[in-house]
Structure prediction request, 113 residues.
Amino acid sequence: KAAEWDAALPYGFMGENLSITGLQESDAYIGDVLRFPDCDLAISEPRRPCYKFQAVMGFNQAVKMMGQSGYCGFYLAVRRPGTLAGGERFEIVPGPREVSIKEVFRVTMRGRF
Prediction:
């Protein structure tokens, strides 16, 4: 059944409120700010898969595969409230650049599979 998920998932499939392109977990650092025209969102932590993720994906190895891939997504904290519209571009305002989302995710997933 895992082979069925080789195709791209539709936006919002995993419960995300915002989908962006052009920023991978290895290039996203805790404390970086995504500056949109009308709001600023700070990268705060990686998403971690839970039992709901495995149920939605529909196969027992979903959490393991997510952990091994390093692709997890991340949470954003509102720094400057405002509005967003589809297709808006953002710029990255670097934070302290101490640890990437990918690094934190790998550490938190270690030993889970």
User: Anything to note?
Assistant: The longest strand covers residues 40-46.
